[in-house]
Design brief:
Blueprint (H helix, E strand, L loop, with lengths): L2 H26 L3 H12 L5 H8 L3 H13 L3 E5 L6 E5 L1 H23 L3 H16 L5 H7 L36
Antiparallel strand pairs: 1-2
Length: 182
């Protein structure tokens, strides 16, 4: 293992996360979880709170609290769910505009960083990043969480290395089940 390469990759992950988080929060004026929820709902309108929790990597009650913040700001609303018996979540026009601004801010930050890379290096960067991303998800929920702030209109279907790495029928979480108390 190349410890230096691993260290660089770790620092890049933290730096990118910080830069994107700061841009999202600054643009929308909400915490990063609420902005991520806006983006998830934008991509998957009508999904349940359980799906929102899975995409955000939070508990059901955490997703409810996040949704409450969006409702309080007039950014989201409850609607009929996918099966007609459940309730889903959709964006209001104001929420859609906020999500679009957040995506534009994210794109600007990342494009600014990529602009500093010589064109010859970009040809090697894209396949390397795709290979790394394909190693991350173990389930569809993992893919949703990894791509929760992505611009899905740019990277969809077979073009998405994260979504392509998991079985499309797999919506389960592969984390180990909690141990029973004795």
């Amino acid at each position: 293992m190349d410890a230096h390469a691993a260290n660089l990759l770790g620092a890049l992950a933290v730096g990118l996360e910080d830069a994107v988080r700061d841009a999202l929060v600054r643009e929308v004026g909400l915490d990063v979880t609420a902005v991520a929820a806006l983006l998830v709902i934008r991509e998957r309108p009508g999904r349940s709170i359980a799906d929102l929790a899975a995409a955000l990597g939070v508990t059901h009650s955490g997703a409810v609290r996040t949704l409450d913040r969006l409702l309080d700001h007039g950014l989201a609303d409850r609607a009929a769910g996918a099966d007609g018996r459940s309730r889903g979540v959709v964006l209001t026009p104001t929420g859609r505009a906020a999500a679009d601004r957040a995506l534009a801010a994210r794109r600007d930050v990342l494009a600014g960083l990529l602009a500093a890379i010589p064109e010859a290096h970009l040809g090697a960067l894209v396949p390397a990043v795709e290979a790394l991303l394909a190693q991350l998800p173990a389930s569809r929920h993992d893919a949703w969480r990894i791509c929760r702030t992505c611009e899905h209109d740019v990277c969809r279907g077979p073009q998405c290395p994260v979504g392509s790495a998991v079985d499309p029928a797999d919506t389960g979480d592969r984390r180990p089940a909690p141990r029973a108390r004795r």
